[in-house]
């Protein structure tokens, strides 16, 4: 201990452990160093009630930072600080321990404060991200959900752009209330008299807001408690043409001013039970007149549907293919590049059932009652219902077979999964019987096309 503490000594390699100190009284406290072959560490040593006490300062370093390591000068300054503290707090070790605990508590409090601030900012960011506009939500919904529909969501987009986005598009989704949606739908019913449109729009609104809930954009849907029945009861259309009406139609159809394709469409719709859109999209390659079949693709239930052609139906298709321009489609558009517009035949049918009290659309046919029948106005879709009714009532076909001819899946899911019979022969027989009945009714219509 008689050796004076110097930098040279601290840097010197020693063969065994030894202690050296500054020349200060032990009673007031002195800086000491513990030298080892591989290191040197500083301590503050003082005397307390006849016992030596040591408080660690830190390791020696020529480039110490005064915290994790110390030069001799820095260690000397720290020893002076501890000496001054001891004059105020005789129990130096106890005081330093309390200071350490206070410092650790302060550090912990600071860590908690920083973490709390981080959580607050995260919650604010999440709340901000959740306040997306209705128009932005609709675009995301359209991209991820509506795009899967056959029309790519075109119908729903038109409805939203007309009734939803103008009043609500710029508002935050989280701010939309049940009252907002109710008022919007009430206006559609009361001002436009369109309850069915309101019901369809509500259905899509439910899907969109459920989409938002699942993605954490809102906590609950504002339309959960709304029901389509709140905006008028849905009425199922049951119009079908009787045999007498079909005979009347057979007398009128050639003189109604219909295009030749429209006449063929009406007769083929009756003979096949096919949906209008599926029939209009029919391609020539999907018609096999040798086997007397046609294949309907991209149907409503997503399955291909093979239709057996009666002699009546086959003759209609043969005539249509012969008189239409070259095209991939049975009912081609004017330039033959695609099929005719889905609404074309429906408009021709509707325009020819306009009562005298209704305003006629400019540029349309003047034969406003050319296809009017005693049972009331009929549509292209009613032909499908008429065909299945004829099968059951006049051709002796069972309801099950008629439903399969309509390409309806059985309602019972167990039957759909486990009973895979196609009912091919009974279905073929049903179409053939229907063709014979229609042939006896519409035989006079099988004439050359009108100009």
Q: What integer value in Å does the Rg equal?
A: 45 Å
Structural class, please?
A: alpha+beta
Major beta sheet, specifics? 4 strands, antiparallel
CATH topology of the largest domain: hpI Integrase, Chain A
Question: What general outline do the C-alpha atoms trace?
Answer: rod-shaped
Give the CATH class of the largest domain.
Mainly Alpha
Largest sheet strand order? 1-2-3-4
- CATH homologous superfamily assignment of the largest domain: Intergrase catalytic core
Number of strands: 7
Per CATH, which architecture of the largest domain? Orthogonal Bundle
Helical fraction: 40-55%
Structural domain tally: 3
Beta-strand percent range: 5-15%
Number of helices: 16
What is the N-to-C order of secondary-structure elements (H for helix, E for strand)?
A: HEEEEHHHHHHHHHEEEHHHHHH
| First-to-last CA distance | 128 Å
Q: Uncertain spans, ≥5 residues at pLDDT below 50?
A: 447-451
> Can you give the mean pLDDT?
87
